[in-house]
Amino acid sequence: MKKENKLAKCLTKFLTVYLPHERNVSPNTIMAYKDSFVSFVTYMRDEKKIKVDKLSLSDLTKDNIIDYLKWMVECKGLGIATRNHRLAAIHSFVSYLQYEQIERLDQWQSVMAIKYMKKDYNVPTHYTKEGIKLLLEQPDQNDNKEFRHLTILALMYDTGCRVQELADLKVDSLCIQSKPYTIRIYGKGRKVRVVPLSENVVAILKNYMDRYDLNDARHLRNTLFYNCFGQKLTRAGITYILKKYADMACAINPGVIPETTSCHQLRHSRAMHLLQSGVNLIWIRDFLGHTSIQTTEVYARTDSKQKREAIEKANADLIPIGGVGEWENNQNLLTWLKHLSKS
Asked: What is the model's pTM?
């Protein structure tokens, strides 16, 4: 008699029943978790030489998972953030197993004890304001297809939305009939935020909806942006649109366009420009849909120009100009130091 594969059974129930129906987890999160387990199962097959149909709950050990996480970073070259996201998926599954397979509680608790790695906060790559202006000047507004591309890029920058959030927008997400102009965005974890729209972007949106006949009430639940086949745009499709015009802009002025292109750069750019305009971090957090202000603070740590100007403003008229405070014009540093000690 063939032994039942409890891992396959538990994982199936976790992804198809527990997450969507008991936890109300968003489809995007479920897909991310699924991808994490595809990666883990592939690792166990290729590196540990355990066939997929032979993989069992007993293989979901602390040692195997640590080896997997190490392999991702050191052999596959994946970042710390990806490593932590994969660990979060495993933690969620093991937390579920603590109740489904309680007889293995010691095993599950040892897996739950695996720590997340601290990651360095790298400077988010973003466009300058001149870069955004140049990028949005590239689509031909007389061509309907390119005008749709302009609308996509302008809206993605203006709202700071994630690329999947843009792809998921419906026509009824917009409230542009009267002021205040807003858009309803469905973010991570099914969280909804209402974001204001600038008048320039509203004008573009109204023109786009006229051109594509989206003002009729029967289209309210339709996807706002779709491809030539009438299907919802994918993340890859939106990235392709951005890269097309980023390359065109780069050919004109490479100094204001990032070397590599990603849709998330528009989100970073909007956050940086809001910060540079003096917008409070708390408001930027809500604008972007961040759960924690710590996530938003990376922009404040990045903007050295703003920090320098703030420090200079704080020091204004407090420290006297010249005197023993300056040694740049004194070629004898030792003389200057001796003089300083006597003052």
From this structure: 0.66
Angle 11-15-17 (CA atoms, 0-180°, nearest 5)? 105
N-to-C CA span, the chain: 93
CB 159 within 8 A of CB 181: no
Tens-digit pLDDT profile for residues 105-161: 999 999 999 999 987 656 578 888 999 999 999 999 999 999 999 999 999 999 999
Q: Are 148 and 209 within 8 A, CB to CB? A: no
What is the token pair recorded at 187? 């973010």
User: What's the rounded Cα separation, in Å, for the pair 161 and 195?
Assistant: 9
Number of Cβ within 10 Å of residue 264's Cβ equals: 14
Phi, psi of 183 (to 5 degrees): -140, 140
Which CATH number fits the domain 6-112, given the four candidates 1.10.3470, 1.20.1740, 1.10.150, 1.25.10? 1.10.150
Q: ω into residue 180 within 30 of 0, thus cis?
A: yes
Taking each helix axis from N to C end, the angle separating 144-159 and 199-211, rounded to the nearest 10 degrees, works out to 150
CATH topology of domain 129-306: hpI Integrase; Chain A (1.10.443)
Q: Among 138, 180, 132, 166, which Cα is nearest to 276's?
A: 132
Distance CA 159, CA 184 (A): 10
Residue ranges, CATH 1.10.150, the chain = 6-112
CATH 1.10.443.10 location in the chain: 129-306
Q: Is the backbone of residue 317 left (phi > 0), alpha (psi -120 to 50) or beta? A: left
